[in-house]
Write a structure and sequence with these properties.
Layout (H helix, E strand, L loop, with lengths): L7 E7 L6 H12 L5 E9 L16 E6 L2 H11 L6 H26 L5 E4 L13 E5 L3 H5 L8 H12 L2 E4 L2 H10 L7 E3 L6 H7 L12 E5 L9 H13 L6 E5 L5 H10 L6 E5 L5 H5 L3 E4 L8 H8 L4 E4 L5 H4 L7 E3 L4 H12 L2 H15 L4 H19 L1
Parallel strand pairs: 1-2, 1-4, 2-3, 4-5, 5-6, 6-7, 8-9, 8-11, 9-10, 11-12, 12-13
Length: 402
Amino acid sequence: MSASLKKIKVHFHVNTLLYGGLEKILITYLRNFDRHKYKVSLSIGRRMYGLETLITSIPKDVEINYLVKSKFVNFTQNKKNRHLKLSLFEKLLHNLLLKTYSKYLYKKNLYKVTQNKNVVIDFDFYSEEVNTNCPVISFLHFSLISFLRWNEDTKSKEYKRIRDKFLKHSNIVLLNHDTLNECINLFPDCKSKFSVIYNPFDLNTIQSKSNQKIDGLCGVEYIVSVSRLEESQKDITTLIRAFHELVTTYRYKGSLVLVGDGSSRAELENLVEKLNLKDNVFFVGLQDNPYKYIKNAKIFVLSSKFEGLPSVVIEALILGTPVIASDCPTGAREILRNGECGILFNVGDHVALAKIMFDLLSDQNKCNELIELGKVRANDFDINFALEKLYRLIDNNFVDRC
């Protein structure tokens, strides 16, 4: 038997490959997996033509399978992902035909592509049910309570659905210890399945990319935020209102740079215009390399209502940019060691955020202290620590299966 046939066949699965933290972390895993021991493949639930900007970052040796790749079947979902409204006819077409047919193709093809694999990694827990006869390791990227706005009703359909999924899967990977505690409290009978693995980061690659030149912001002092512009989670409104307070009350002369795009962009641009901040706030859209914007900023701000383990906060620590983050569930407090490596503020409190930004901008010694502590903390998220833990889960499932 050849050496390649002896490798453990590990199959990653994700619902779509858009441009977000989840997708970037997935690609970090794919690029760094041990090819001597594992043969890696990937399935993507639905092909989003024109939106898959990260597809070229996937290593050439990773076999990619789309479960639903028809432009016609996916066009309503593609339109939603472009933040375009569906016509009445398109809504009817989606609900009466495309939705059902898409689910059928998804389920059938996922079962087909995982038949000869040893372990399946469901990298997006909220994707469609992973129908396979292989052991499944599932990644949960968000706080359950915040994401689902739960009342912790153990009789609800959603509770039962998630519990059933937990019980079916071999392991559930959580991104931080707060989420671990949530899950143990909500699903005590699944406790043995839970493991914490921090998101992995290739520190050298991030630092190298951050050295690229920024066009249009030369010599400009600015505060930066990097996120999807989705108010249901990211709450950029609070940041913009805090920046307005910083400009009007504290006479700040710098700018605010918002990296990212999303369905709330027009709403946020209207708010900026209403507050007379058009000359101070820059929407630079999606960027293949957000690291150069983070590195050259005076401060990085996360204003989210909820997270899992916010990758951008870790990237700011890696790049030596002082961090201010909302004390949201979950992740930011754990990354920043309860405020030791960055400053926390209450979710939605734009007045407090403005004062914190002013104080930090006025105190270079505090900035330097946070930068040094942050760089030390960033080492805990090195790719090798995450890989070692994930390899252990894969190997245990493979041995148990043999």
